[in-house]
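As the work plan foresaw, our protein records have gained a structure token line. A representative record is set out beneath this paragraph:
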Amino acid sequence: MDVITTHVNADFDAVASMLAAKKLYPDATLAFPGSQEKGLRDFFLQSTFYMLQTERIKKIDFDAITRLILVDIRQRDRIGPFAEVVDRKNVDIHIYDHHPPSDNDVSGSVEVIRELGATTTILSGILEEKNIDISPDEATILMMGIYEDTGSLTFTSTTVEDYLAAAFLLKKGASLNVVSDMVTKELTAEQISVLYELIHTATVHTINGTDVVIAKASTDRYVSDFAVLVHKLRDIESINVLFVLAEMEDRIYLVARSRLNEVDVSKVATEFGGGGHATAASATIKEMGLEEA
């Protein structure tokens, strides 16, 4: 059995990559390894895009898996229960990812890894190269993946290939109106409250001549789209290097952003069991208090 999966707390790039991979592996079963971002869950509830047809992980027969396709991830500690499958000799691993390497990466017989703005960009290029047709609805979902991970093609991690992939998806009928509605949303009252706290707790630390801003917030409930708040804080305060810690429910979330080539925030996130890119990284910290983190 072929299974396509991605990382826990799946975002739009993850789900778009799963959809694109399904076009390459049409007989594969789609399954999330765990939770999805709230914005993504809302997307499934509100939209008519049910072409993914994902299987609940509890119904997956792990012993029957002969090929595991990982998209937007290759870190074994971020694929949930699928981590028990990747070292089996009888399981073929295929990987499509845009993240830099880490110490706990899975190896595969097929590895398509390029540091582009989104994994969806990689897979869109393969679909175009193989002349595999996609519907306007599918193109729209793929465009969401690229837009979210590249900040609507504005992040410094955005590449020429991301623009070319977006152009390909537009040709296939992607709706920018739908993409804009899903990716760009007004902040809720709860999000505004957290953003206000981040602004007022932000402190500047000069490290080796570079100003690094650290901000923190605490809330009893999980606040969705937290990375959006980090971007807003960065833009409001014109911050080049930013680390944000948020205590939500029973864990600490770290989100880091850098606009400087000489500061690689993924190295810090990796120390906390997370990962990402030099310009954008994150981690989930379970056994540490906010002040300790």
Notes: The chain has a mean pLDDT of 89. The domain at 189-285 is CATH 3.10.310.30 (Diaminopimelate Epimerase; Chain A, domain 1). The longest strand covers residues 210-219. DSSP finds nine helices and eleven strands in the chain.
